[in-house]
């Protein structure tokens, strides 16, 4: 379903913009998981883990 929606160029651009805004907002980086494709979830989890280690240091 998500792939079909993101097939339209305008929807793809909106999705990319939303994802980038979530990833660059440190407070909302955990909420970016909703916008990330399944194959990239592992990278997203690594990002959250690395950020939490930086915060704890």
Can you tell me about this structure?
With 57 residues, this protein is mainly α. It has one domain. 63% of the residues lie in helices and 0% in strands. The chain is built from three helices and no strands. The protein has helices at 2-5, 9-24, 41-56.
Write the layout of secondary structure elements.
Blueprint: H1 2-5, H2 9-24, H3 41-56
Give the topology string: H per helix, E per strand.
Answer: HHH
Rg (C-alpha, Å): 13 Å
Oligomer: single chain
User: What is the domain total for the residues?
Assistant: 1
Mean pLDDT comes to: 78
Determine the fraction of residues in helical runs and give it as a percent range. 55-70%
The amount of beta strand, in percent, is under 5%
- In this structure, how is the largest beta sheet organized? none
Task: Kindly list the characteristics that best describe this protein.
mainly alpha, 57 residues, single chain, 3 helices, elongated, 63% helix
Structure in a nutshell:
With 57 residues, the chain is mainly alpha-helical. 63% of the residues lie in helices and 0% in strands.
């Amino acid at each position: 379903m998500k792939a079909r929606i993101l097939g339209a160029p305008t929807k793809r651009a909106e999705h990319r913009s939303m994802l980038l805004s979530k990833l660059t907002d440190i407070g909302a980086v955990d909420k970016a998981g909703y916008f990330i494709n399944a194959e990239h979830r592992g990278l997203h989890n690594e990002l959250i883990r690395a950020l939490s280690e930086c915060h704890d240091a």
